[in-house]
Design goal:
Order of helices and strands: EEEHHEEHEHEHEHEHEHHEHEE
CATH superfamily of the largest domain: Enolase-like C-terminal domain
Distance between the termini: 14 Å
Number of helices: 10
CATH architecture of the largest domain: Alpha-Beta Barrel
Number of strands: 13
Shape: globular
CATH topology of the largest domain: TIM Barrel
Helix content: 25-40%
């Protein structure tokens, strides 16, 4: 087997605002495997400040993986590098698939069925957030997720309130993502305010590591709470179960690039179903290489609720692919070819 990689820096069309700061670029390492004239691609994608992978070491670890594969030596320990685990797992699936991009053959990958997705509203000025909302509504989205926590809460609340006045509970699903921005002492009061607007769910209202406080919120909150960042770095099965039994959230947000790939995401799903916890999948700003794999995997789970897979159009230099958004659904349009410059990636 030949294994190589190339770093690819994705540039945002417009800076993406989160409670952790403004994102203008995001790095990925594209892993390419070749064996018996077959190729396979995988993406090691990180978000600095969020991913568990050490950004100063990830490239050297990807190089170690390539050398180990090329020389048929044991792989390095990837426990602390979930993004590399994801890239390697995806590349091997791609290499061993009948066609390089059809990792999980299904009606979705064949272009016969779609995946419902939510529209994503990035943080920014109220005017900028309103502009994004209007664009998504005009495009036909009936589930919108707003990132909140960067502005004064009252401003964000009024924006959501005005949106709810225009669209009823039956016509528009509203999700919010606080990215851990609320202080634990004030969180419940804010959740009670948001509940008056018929919010579907809130992701990670308080910062990670506060299991007792999060458990109290999940027990008292009038809005279903979803864990997101809380899952990152939790690689051991015993710790996963301990955490979910302690907190018992309403939902889990599964991002395979942050969790260690599909095998780890599947382990979270098995545990969630055992404990009667809901979940959905979300991309984590991967290029279309990673997004394609995550979308195909997510479709096989047969969830009817909107997934968070609409991030492929955020970048100026993404890889062209058959992934297209029509109204509020993600489709595979196999009349569109993957970009030809992929042959130059590795």
């Amino acid at each position: 087997m030949k294994a190589s990689f190339k770093k690819h820096r994705l540039n945002f069309k417009r800076p993406g605002g989160t409670s952790r700061g403004i994102l203008k670029t995001k790095d990925s390492w594209i892993l390419c495997l070749e064996e018996n004239s077959h190729r396979g691609y995988g993406e090691c994608s990180i978000i600095e400040g969020l991913s568990w992978d050490d950004p100063n070491r990830i490239e050297s670890v990807v190089l170690e993986v390539c050398e180990a594969l090329s020389l048929a030596k044991p792989l390095p320990d990837l426990t602390d590098f979930p993004a590399v685990q994801m890239g390697l797992e995806t590349a091997l699936l791609s290499l061993n698939s009948p066609t390089v991009w059809n990792l999980f053959p299904s009606a979705f990958s064949w272009g016969e069925a779609s995946i419902p997705i939510n529209g994503l509203v990035w943080m920014g000025t109220i005017d900028f957030m309103q502009e994004q909302i209007d664009d998504l509504l005009n495009r036909g989205f009936d589930c919108i997720k707003l990132k909140i926590g960067a502005l004064h809460f009252e401003e964000e609340f009024q924006l959501l309130k005005s949106l709810r006045k225009r669209y009823s509970l039956s016509s528009l699903i509203l999700r919010v993502d606080a990215n851990g921005a609320f202080h634990s002492k004030e969180a419940l009061g804010k959740l009670e305010q948001l509940a008056t607007l018929g919010i579907h769910s809130i992701e990670q209202p308080i910062a990670t590591g506060q299991w007792e406080e999060m458990a109290k919120l999940c027990n008292k909150s009038p809005i279903p709470i979803a864990l997101d960042e809380e899952l990152i770095g939790c690689q051991q099965a015993a710790k996963r179960k301990q955490m979910l039994e302690a907190i018992h959230p309403h939902y889990l947000i599964l991002k395979p690039s942050l969790l260690g790939g599909f095998s780890h995401a599947d382990a979270w799903i098995d545990l969630a179903e055992e404990l009667q916890i809901g979940w959905w999948a979300t991309s984590a700003l991967e290029s279309n290489i990673g997004l394609n794999a995550i979308a195909q995997w997510a479709y096989t789970k047969k969830l009817s609720i909107p997934q968070g897979l609409g991030t492929g159009s955020l970048f100026t230099n993404n890889f062209e692919s058959p992934l297209v958004i029509k109204k509020d659904c993600l489709w595979t349009d196999n009349s569109i070819s993957w970009t030809q410059n992929l042959t130059d990636v590795c």
